Amino acid sequence: MDSALITPGLGVIFWMVVSFAILVFILLKFGWPIILKTLNERESAINDALLAADKAKEEMQQLKASNEDLLREAKMERDEMLRNARLTSEKIIEDSKIKATEEADRIVEMARQSIEYEKMEALHELKNQMANLSIEIAEKLLKQELADKERANAFIKQELEDVNLK
Predict the structure, then answer these.
(1) Is 80 left (phi over 0), alpha (psi -120 to 50) or beta?
(2) At 129, phi and psi to the nearest 5?
């Protein structure tokens, strides 16, 4: 086995160290600042994104609370509108009932007056007919009573005395 391949020589180690040092120098001089700058920018971008996410989360919570408030207000307005509509309909129904009752009372009163008028008219007509019948009966009786001259004169004297006494 060849140990020269396994154990490097002093010259190879020297050039490897020099190459490594140059590589480290170049990386420290040119690469490391760019890498650090990129890492810092990345960290800053991540922090900004986290802050923006927190801000968006807060805004969403505020919007949600605002939406809940709006929803609550809308429900209250709806309830108030329904209550007002119910009260208005009850008032309209009550007014209609009152008007219907008043109209029915007015119609009943007119019917009573009409019935009273017709009753008075019928009574008046009945009295007139009774008076006419009484006159006709009295006329017939008088004709019968006055058919005899003596009785007629006696009846006339009697009636004249009754009229003079009153």
Answers:
(1) alpha
(2) -65, -40
Decide if 81 is inside a domain.
yes
Q: Is residue 64 part of a domain?
A: yes
Asked if the structure places residue 148 within a domain, the reply is no
Contact between residue 129 and residue 123 where contact means Cβ atoms under 8 Å apart: no
Question: 136 lies in a domain?
Answer: no
Structural domain boundaries enclosing 41: 9-127
Rounded Cα–Cα distance for residues 59 and 74 (Å): 22
Interval 29-69: pLDDT, tens: 988 889 889 999 999 999 999 999 999 999 999 999 999 99
What's the pLDDT band for 2 if we cut at 50, 70, 90? low
pTM for the full model? 0.41
User: Per-residue pLDDT tens for 98-119?
Assistant: 999 999 999 999 999 999 999 9
DSSP state for residue 9 in the 8-state scheme = P
Report the mean per-residue pLDDT for the chain. Answer: 87
Asked whether the CA dihedral 17, 19, 20, 25 is positive or negative, the reply is positive
